[in-house]
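Hi V.,

Quick status before I head out on leave. The structure for the redesign project is tokenized and pasted below; the design run finished overnight.
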């Protein structure tokens, strides 16, 4: 049996590089609460993402959850169910009501044609998701948000380093959330960040992630604890040095998949969008009219020790915890896609030989069925 191929593998710097980076933490023994590594990583990420305002968090989810609180959003928030649990939970955990808009079948981002019809007098914001790093229709979203005076927060967890017509996605909307989880293109082990347009938000967010404390004897907000610690930030400083090379390696793998799987009946690939510099975070494949169902392909690969992922499945509006409140029938396209999509193994050090082997299994599976 061949070695297992996981769907993803965390990027790590050399051990020596990390040890060198954390050495000075032993000099000042300052381990968290916005220390030197934290400040340096913020500065370097602002430069890398080409955006003026950034605040680091201990993970992407809490960044989003605290941002919704800090913006004092009320009532209803329009979003999509074709996302990770985090996006929907962040809305609900703030006591707000998610209103689910369907996705478009081309890039799986929010369908702007339907968006306006979901706006009510209770709507306060739109939280679209740059799924797989595909950039949402931000111009149309901005037009609608302006017209109805709504905030726009992007879940950009998948979109680290992505640019559209040369503009970094961190600059879209009122704010964007990035995840630096171990499985993402850029990681700080666990971690995340917010980028935002209004620079006065920086102090508010910094205080929100530190219990709402604003001074030695003042607590102005009901914040929580979501600070990134110095070891996370040090990991980020190391990984950031290599991220361009990692994205380049992902691109080669991505293109190899395309070469192998292009023009197979029943397999739909999502090609990079026009004007978008991708980060090649995922390789999603839709099985629609293929001799095997998505689930059968998944099981066939698993038998060969290759781990693909039904991502995103299930939709957030079909989670058990939301059973009495929402239904996937509201979003038929998302429901259709979620049933047919599979993301294939993709990480910087995946070998091209392994890519070919995975694709060969898919191709032979057709003949086996016949
Ligand atoms: C990873 C992810 C999150 C959550 O980020 P964490 O850093 O794991 O908390 C949110 N939304 C999407 C779409 C994600 O993929």
């Amino acid at each position: 049996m061949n070695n297992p191929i996981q769907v993803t593998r965390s990027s790590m710097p050399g051990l020596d590089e990390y040890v060198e980076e954390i050495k000075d933490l032993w000099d000042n023994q300052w381990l968290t609460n916005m220390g030197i590594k934290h400040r340096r990583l913020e500065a370097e990420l602002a430069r890398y993402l080409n955006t003026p305002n950034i605040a680091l968090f201990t993970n992407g989810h809490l960044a989003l959850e605290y941002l919704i609180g800090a913006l004092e959003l009320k009532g209803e928030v329009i979003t999509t169910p074709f996302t990770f649990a985090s996006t929907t939970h962040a809305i609900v955990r703030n006591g707000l009501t998610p209103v689910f808009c369907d996705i478009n079948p081309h890039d799986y981002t929010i369908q702007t044609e339907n968006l306006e019809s979901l706006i009510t007098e209770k709507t306060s914001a739109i939280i679209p998701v740059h799924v797989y790093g595909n950039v949402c229709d931000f111009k149309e979203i901005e037009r609608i948000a302006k017209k109805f005076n709504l905030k726009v927060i992007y879940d950009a967890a998948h979109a680290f380093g992505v640019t559209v017509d040369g503009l970094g996605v961190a600059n879209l909307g009122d704010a964007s959330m990035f995840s630096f989880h171990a499985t993402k293109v850029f990681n700080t082990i666990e971690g995340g960040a917010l980028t935002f347009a209004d620079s006065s938000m920086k102090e508010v967010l910094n205080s929100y992630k530190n219990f709402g404390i604003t001074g030695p004897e003042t607590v102005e907000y009901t914040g929580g604890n979501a600070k990134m610690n110095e070891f996370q930030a040090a990991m980020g400083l190391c990984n950031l040095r290599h991220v361009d090379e990692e994205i380049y390696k992902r691109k080669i793998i991505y293109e190899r998949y395309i070469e192998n799987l292009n023009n197979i009946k029943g397999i739909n690939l999502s090609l990079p969008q026009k004007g978008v510099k991708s980060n090649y975070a995922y390789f999603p494949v839709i099985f629609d009219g293929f001799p095997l169902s998505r689930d059968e392909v998944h099981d066939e690969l698993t038998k060969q020790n290759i781990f693909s992922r039904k991502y995103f499945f299930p939709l957030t509006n079909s989670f058990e915890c939301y059973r009495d409140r929402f239904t996937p029938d509201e979003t038929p396209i998302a429901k259709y896609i979620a049933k047919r999509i599979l993301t294939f193994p993709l990480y910087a050090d995946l070998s091209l030989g392994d890519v070919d082997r995975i694709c060969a299994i898919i191709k032979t599976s057709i003949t086996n069925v016949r």
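Above is the designed sequence. The chain has two domains: 15-237, 243-369.

G. will cover questions while I'm gone.

Best,
W.
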